[in-house]
Predict the 3D structure of the following.
Amino acid sequence: MKIFNSFKVFYDDKWTNKGDAVIYVAPKFKMVVSILFVFLWLVTSVYIAFPWIADLGKYMPVFFAWFIVTGLAFIPGMANALIVSGLVLDKRPIFRLHAKSKFPPVSLLIAAYNEEKDIATTLRSVLSQNYPSVLEVIVIDDGSKDKTALVAAKVISDNKDANVKIILKSLTRNTGKAMALNEGLKLASYDYIITLDADSYLYENSLRNLVNYMLCSTPDTGAVAGSVLVRNSRNNWLTKLQEWDYFHGISVVKRIQSLYQGTLVAQGSYSIFKKSVLQECGGWTDTMGEDIVLTWGLHSKAYKVRYAENAIVFTNVPETYKNFFRQRKRWARGLIEAFIQHPGVIVKPHLNVPFIWYNLTFPYLDFIYLFVFIPGVIAALVFRNYLLVGLMTLLLLPLALLINGIMYYKQRQVFNRMGLTIRQNLLGFLLYMIGYQLIMTPASLAGYASEMLRLKKSWGTK
């Protein structure tokens, strides 16, 4: 092995091409390059924006002019620069699969509440995985009022796979997802715990790829998030928008965060954890965002959280705006809960700290977007007043196309490797670029406010 500062040339059985030289660039070096690019981007943006700030300063105190432009341009631009540089620098590891005899037994937890329509399909997708070791599936019926338990019991009775043991645990009352998962954790027999939503469908070899990523990661890895994509994307305009959010936004951001060894959410819908790490963190907390709170608990204890883009699961997303609003409101509350329960992650030295700081600005950015940017667009279109939204804002459109183009290219590579085809959904893509934030921001702001005001919590939808 030769080491040249931040670069390594080595031969490793974990990589796909056994015996071939692999050039490894340390994440710390990549982060330095990204931060330099972000800094140059910021300096250039501030220089260009001085006339804009001066114009705004004629109508308001200069402080407010800086407050507005920072939220409209500077912070979003820095975030985009960080993502673009990360995508350019990112070279995802493609690990060799372990021999079948080396795959460990795992426990898979499925918390289900009123899922009689989907639980059978989910369980059958698990059975179709042909995982090369013992698979313990624990279905926790969280006090369902429908036939979830009966449907699950029917699948259990039909199961002929000797390597797959399905256990049904029925709770007498609805306790919430976190508590249901904790009940499943008590029953889990093995050292690796996988969580899966009850209305999901595992793509081929997904379990094997997820476990393999954990096995090939460094010993300080506490969790690996799987790749969650939209299952019901053809149903209506809202699911088409969410298809692009999961495909572009969520997946790409997780990928960049994983580049710096710190994915911020090992989502409960599909992730793998070391059982010892879960027990050290006390399992899942009874919060609205139990998955992000747990993940930040892992970060606070210096565990790395990674992302396996080839461990794909398809899940159902909300089909009505009411359910979408409730889901995103819950996600926003979960973010605030994570900051409250684990404030130390803001200052804890780690490569993913820039992403945590960026998340800290979300309430401010969403406020600026809804109450400054949108009124500015209306003023420009209706009254031809370009004080808030003008030529400089229009220049962001080519940038947005460039960023989305890079995202699309990277994600298409993943799909090609996995034998998947990107569905033609041009209308959904255009609406996603133009209007998705508009329908999402009110829900996020409602979530931030609800958590800060300690309002009553209700689950809503996942």
